[in-house]
Design a protein that fits this description.
By secondary structure, this protein is mainly alpha-helical. It is built from 7 helices and 7 strands. The termini are far apart. The mean pLDDT is about 90. This is CYLD hydrolase.
């Protein structure tokens, strides 16, 4: 008999299970970066469920079991995950990683994703990016970098991704199976945006390398691209 699985929460079920007090992933000891990442990756989407079940080549089954049985399944079943479950995962990551501070320090979500996806589960990179015609880079998530833009007061994710790709001269080499995006960072002292509106769908047509696109003047297939 295989491990138990619960489907991601959708529509009315998501509201019913996840809304209200004592819902979500309980924070403890600078865990917010991991809590937010885990909630985003698993609560309402199954696109990364292979992380929970697949026997990858390097896969640490203990970490995989904790992730599935102590975090994702309770989140989808009851809408709540105890801080002790996340700490159990953090302790395992500290044992497996090169870094001793996963249990107490605040980290960058990208550091957590790279450790769990690459070193512990052995998943192939999810994204292939190319900058200005240089060699393509492979990565697991994309962090939005951009200067403060006065015309964007309450941006949506679509605007931020497009402007960030434009300012870094980046293109997606291929359509990604999963596109994990980290919003512009902020700390206690400074927030670039007070709010960001989630884009429920992301149009990546203009972000793809060598993708045929229509000319904005005549409607035929474009031959040149102006930034």
């Amino acid at each position: 008999e295989g491990p138990e699985s619960f489907p991601p929460l959708r529509n009315e079920a998501a509201v019913r299970v996840l809304q209200g007090r004592m819902k979500g992933i309980q924070g403890h000891c600078n865990s917010c970066y991991m809590d937010a990442a885990l909630f985003s990756l698993f609560s309402c989407t199954s696109v990364l469920d292979s992380m929970l079940f697949m026997p990858f080549p390097l896969c640490d089954r203990n970490v995989q079991g904790i992730l599935r049985d102590e975090i994702v399944n309770p989140l989808r079943r009851t809408g709540f995950v105890r801080a002790s479950s996340v700490m159990h995962l953090r302790e395992q990551l500290t044992d497996k990683g090169q870094c001793s501070s996963f249990t107490n320090a605040e980290k960058d979500p990208e550091e957590f994703l790279n450790l769990i996806m690459q070193q512990i589960l052995g998943i192939e990179p999810l994204l292939k990016l190319q900058s200005g015609g240089q060699k393509e880079q492979e990565c697991y998530c994309y962090q939005i970098f951009m200067d403060k833009q006065e015309d964007l007061v309450v941006p949506d994710v679509q605007q931020l991704v497009e402007r960030s790709f434009l300012s870094s001269d980046l293109k997606l080499v291929e359509i990604p199976s999963c596109f994990i995006i980290q919003m512009p960072r902020f700390g206690k002292e400074y927030k670039m945006f007070s709010k960001i509106i989630p884009s429920l769908e992301l149009d990546i047509t203009d972000l793809l390398l060598d993708s045929p696109r229509e000319c904005c003047l005549c409607g035929d297939v474009a031959t040149l691209e102006c930034s």
